[in-house]
Amino acid sequence: QKEVEQNSGPLSVPEGAIASLNCTYSDRGSQSFFWYRQYSGKSPELIMFIYSNGDKEDGRFTAQLNKASQYVSLLIRDSQPSDSATYLCAVEGNTGKLIFGQGTTLQVKP
Amino acid sequence: GAVVSQHPSWVICKSGTSVKIECRSLDFQATTMFWYRQFPKQSLMLMATSNEGSKATYEQGVEKDKFLINHASLTLSTLTVTSAHPEDSSFYICSARVSPGQLNEKLFFGSGTQLSVL
Lengths: 110, 118
Fold this sequence. Notes:
The complex is a heterodimer. Chain A is mainly beta. Chain A contains no helices and eleven strands. Chain B is mainly β. Chain B contains no helices and eleven strands. Chain B has strands at residues 4-7, 10-13, 19-25, 32-38, 45-51, 57-58, 67-73, 76-81, 90-97, 107-109, 113-117. In chain B, strand 4 and strand 5 form a beta hairpin. Classes of the chains: A mainly beta, B mainly beta. The interface between A and B is medium-sized, with 22 and 20 residues.
């Protein structure tokens, strides 16, 4: 079992729709969770981080965390073609290191 | 936000040669730097953690004699791929933490280096 799992996709949504990206993790002791966006050939860019159960909103992005289910998600409202990228879920283990999922490719079609 | 400069952006080399990749924190002191490797359509895999003035800590399965890491100053860390082979071709990314003990929200990534070994 991978430590951080994501569906590789691609996830295709029409412009203006809500994109829902999901991530599960195996270490129940994980405390910090991150979502990064990565364009092809570029390095990751931090979008959101969340530490507590529940929702955290920042503009068009909402991160959701459910520690009991070991599940974290990212919602993107009013998706734009410029949101098309690979979204990496990362979990901070008890060593302080980030463990990344393989990423979900999002395609937003005009 | 803080800027991490990584050079070169891409490099092509012959099999058996060594390649050095530099990672600099431009406007902050980075006591800890991380080196990742990413193969196409795969995740970032942590290779090693580099602390200024001390030996790097390598992840399991990463050959420390092949991937030499030096973190001699608070603003510069280097990764040298020695005797590179085609299977070392990958996207290498460094990241720097603003100060020790900071949460990973204070982790800044370099722009990455695409290494192609012929």
